[in-house]
Amino acid sequence: MTLGAVTLKKQLIMEKALELFAKQGFEATSVQQITEHCGISKGAFYLSFKSKDELITALIDHFMNQLTSDIDYVVRNTNKDDLLYTFYYTIFHTSYQHSDFARLLMKEQSHAFNNDLLEKLHYFDRLIGMTILSMLEQIYGEQVSETKYDLMYCIKGFMNTYSQLVVFYNVPLDLELLSNSLVEKTDLLAQHTTVPFISEEIIQLFTSPMNEAVTKDQILDILAPKIEEMEDSMEKESLVLLKEQLEEQTLSPVIIRGLIENIRNQPHCKWIAFLLRRYYEF
C-alpha cells in the first residue's frame, strides 16, 4: 500500500469514526463498530491507528491544528485596528466549520479522556493562550501590562461560552455582530480593569514547557513524511523547498515567508506552517 493510500485510509477512518462518536460518544463507540461503519477489517484499522485513543488524538490534532494555526496567522498578519475583530471571527468561523467535532469535544472532554488526551488539549490551550497574549500586547501595549493574564482568561471564557452558541444551537448566528460585540466587551475590560488576579508567577507554573523553542529537527521529522504522502502540487513543491532551506539555508526571508504562505491554506499543512512561522519568528 502506498503512502498516499495509507493517508486516504486514515482520512476515511477519521471521518466515519467522527460520525459514530457524534452519535454515541467516545466511550460507547468500539473499534468493531468503527470498522463496520468504514467497511474495513480490524487489521486495516490497526495499520492506521494503534488504538481508539490514538484515533481520538488524531482527531483532536486535526481540529486543534486548524484552530491554532488560523488564529496564529491572524495575530501575526492582521493590522492592529482590525486584529481583535478578525481574531474573534476566525475563532467562531472555524468552530462552525468543524461543529461536529467541536460539539463532541465540549461534551466529552470533562469525563471521557485519559490523562494523555487531556494533556494534548492542555498543550493546545497553552499555545492559544500565548497567541492571545501576543495579540493583547500588540493592541494595548503597556496599558494592559498588569492585567494581560486576566484579560487572556476573559477572552478564553468568551471563546468557550459563545462557541457553545455557534456549535450547540441550530439557529443562524450573525458572526460579524457577535465578533463586534466581543470586541466592545474586550475593549471595556482592557480599558477599565485595574485589579489583576493572575500573576506571571502563576502563569509560569503551567506554561513554562511551552517556552521551549521549536527545533529544526522537530519540523524536519514532520516535513519528510508529509512530502512523501502528498500528490504533486504547488504545496508539495513549497514543502520540498522549505525542507531544503532547513537543511541548508540559502533563501531570503521574503522567499521563505512566501513559501509558508503557499502551504498555510492546505488543511494538512497548516500545522507545519504554524511551526515554521514560530521557527523563523515571522
Automatic annotation (TrEMBL):
Keyword set includes DNA-binding: yes
Keywords: DNA-binding, Repressor
DNA-binding residue intervals: 30-49
One Pfam family here: TetR_N
Top-level taxon: Bacteria
Domain HTH tetR-type: residue ranges: 7-67
Molecular function GO terms recorded: DNA binding
UniProt name for this protein: TetR family transcriptional regulator
